[in-house]
Amino acid sequence: MKLACQEGMVPGASLAEKIARLEDWGYEGIEIWGSNLRERVPEIKEALKGRKVKFGSICAGYRGCLLDPKADERNQAMSDIKELLTLGGQFGVVGLIVVPIFGGPRLPDARPLFDARGFERKLFLAQLKELAETADKAKCAILVEPLNRYETHWVNRLEQAVDLVRRIDSDYVRIMADFFHMAIEEANLAASIKKAGKYLAHVHLADSNRVLPGLGHTDFKSGFAALKEIGFKGYMALECGVPGDATVLLPQTAKHLRQYV
Q: Does the model's pTM come out above 0.85?
């Protein structure tokens, strides 16, 4: 398992400076937001030269919404996701984080054919099947992320995401687990991780209060033990608030988490 951190959490005047700091603090990866990624390719390549820290994952950054009733919104999301997967493949990242939808349902209730969630499910599976072709070619995974009930109405738990991705015949359609969302939605963190098994390809780290691990009451010890048990060897990226001086707290967090890795 490899510790990583989102770019926006790290102080520094440039990406190169941020990566250098992460390396000094004991991190092995950086997660970068997907918007404007194409324009940043030269910057990212230059910043990574000679560094042990790798570009591990892309956090969303695509426009549109996959489950919007308007075709142009859906098409925009599909197009951007395909481009980001291709770019991710060039860097060898694990994958691109994809959230099916934020907030409530946008598609209509089409009963007796299916209700709104049934409509979403049918559409999203068709989209995943199409996107998998690009993911397979790029060798960059689609990482479906479950969110808590206050941020999305659909796909809240790991098992729900697994139920979707296992229907797509691709090693590059997988799920990710976020400890903050899991602390709200999962009855047992370790059991949920074990059940997800091989479908789990990426992790976000945040404590129960959505700040740095160790500053809330989430049981990271059992969660990390479960990750070890399923043979997880990927990146675990911090995605949370930093309630203080990041130059002090980020090194402390890496040290704190190392006891469980």
A: yes
